[in-house]
Design goal:
The chain contains 14 helices and 12 strands. The chain has a 7-stranded parallel β-sheet, sandwiched between helices. A 5-stranded parallel β-sheet has the order 2-1-3-4-5. Helices cover about 40% and strands about 15% of the residues. The chain has 2 domains: about 5-100 and about 295-325, NAD(P)-binding Rossmann-like Domain (Rossmann fold); about 100-285, Rossmann fold (3-Layer(aba) Sandwich). About 40% of the residues are buried. By secondary structure, it is of the alpha/beta class. The chain has helices at about 15-20, 35-45, 60-65, 85-90, 100-115, 120-130, 155-170, 185-190, 195-205, 225-230, 245-255, 275-280, 295-315, 325, and strands at about 5-10, 25-30, 50, 70-75, 95, 150-155, 175, 190-195, 205-210, 235, 260-265, 280-285. Bound molecules: glyoxylic acid (GLV).
Length: about 325
């Protein structure tokens, strides 16, 4: 029997291509060319499946133009690049890559919080520019992390990982807001208590955003939410671009209406709002929260295993629209 044909839409670890080739006829974008939607559609012709990353948009137009497509396996936990309803309607399975990145991403969220509160980037730029000529009492004085109040918006697995780091490692008081409240045992494990979004914004010293992007979470943090925060507070976004109104955030940072921000994700990335590039009190990183070699390998392997499980036994590991499987 001939092997199913798959497209790997972005460059990935060469050993993963070798792994996939044991099961599939693979066309891979190892030159990492950036494809337009029409090029992606062209590449998907005759393919049974796709290995995608968070930047590869699979929507109704792509699905209509690629009737042979049966599965898209995302090498990301977030899947706002998928129009899941359209995929379900077209009978195309969607999978993501949860769990394997939880601790790595929580580490990064905490690192960004620390860098933001303690002004690590700003002070490094100052030093590199040769401006450090003397000690001064308030040079890059930031805010404390230990013992402060940590507010987490979005308390899934990664949010819980950040809560545990804050509560157990840094003696922080942890409050959280989520669509649904955690059960008591999980709250106790995370030493976290539930708060309304407004109470969280008004009382937290450090606010970390870890909620998934959807039209409903678009601009969860805009000018009015920023106005609720303490002028000494910091904001960290490791969730998705679009959850924060970046233009409003740049104004709040410039006017010191909040102390500082740490951003790993941006509206319209890889473009960054130009005003964010000119304010000093923001730490900017290029969407790397899950980027350690072992974790990126594990994410790629999970996406590959979803493809293998689906084509071998109709048993993907982490399906997002499992109803589609019943129709196969
Ligand atoms: C990264 O942002 C992911 O969703 O995995």
């Amino acid at each position: 029997m001939s092997k199913p044909k798959i497209l790997v839409a972005r460059e990935i670890f060469p050993e993963m291509i070798t792994y996939l080739e044991r099961h599939f006829e693979v066309e891979a974008n190892q030159q990492d060319e950036s494809w337009s939607k029409s090029q992606l559609i062209e590449k998907l012709q005759g393919k049974d499946g796709a290995f995608t990353t968070g930047g590869d948009r699979i929507d109704a137009e792509v699905l209509a133009a690629c009737p042979g497509l049966k599965i898209c396996a995302n090498m990301a936990v977030g899947y706002n690049n998928f129009d899941l309803d359209a995929m379900t309607a077209a009978g195309v399975l969607a999978t993501n890559a949860p769990d394997v990145l939880t601790e790595t991403t929580a580490d990064f969220g905490f690192a960004l919080l620390m860098a933001t509160a303690r002004r690590i980037s700003e002070s490094e730029h100052f030093l590199r520019a040769g401006k450090w000529t003397k000690w001064s009492f308030d040079m890059f004085a930031g805010s404390d992390v230990h013992g402060s109040t940590l507010g987490i918006l979005g308390m899934g697995r990664i949010g819980q990982g950040i809560a545990k780091r804050g509560a157990h490692g840094f003696g922080m008081k942890v409050i959280y807001h989520n669509r649904s409240r955690l059960d008591a045992a999980l709250e106790a494990e995370c030493k976290a208590s539930y708060a309304s979004k407004e109470e969280l914004l008004r009382t937290a010293d450090h606010v970390v955003l870890v909620l998934p992007y959807s039209p409903a979470s678009h601009h969860t943090i805009g000018a009015s939410e920023l106005a609720m925060m303490k002028p000494t507070a910091t904001l960290v976004n490791i969730a998705r671009g679009g959850i924060v109104d970046d233009a409003a955030l740049a104004v709040a940072l410039r006017e010191k209406r909040i102390a500082a921000a740490g951003l790993d994700v941006f509206e319209g990335e890889p473009k960054v709002h130009p005003d964010l590039l000119t304010v000093p009190n923001v730490v900017l990183t290029p969407h790397i929260a899950s980027a350690t070699v072992p974790t990126r390998l594990a994410m790629a392997k999970l996406a590959a295993d979803n493809l293998i499980g689906f084509f071998k036994e109709n048993k993907p590991l982490t399906p997002l629209n499992p109803a589609v499987l019943a129709t196969k």
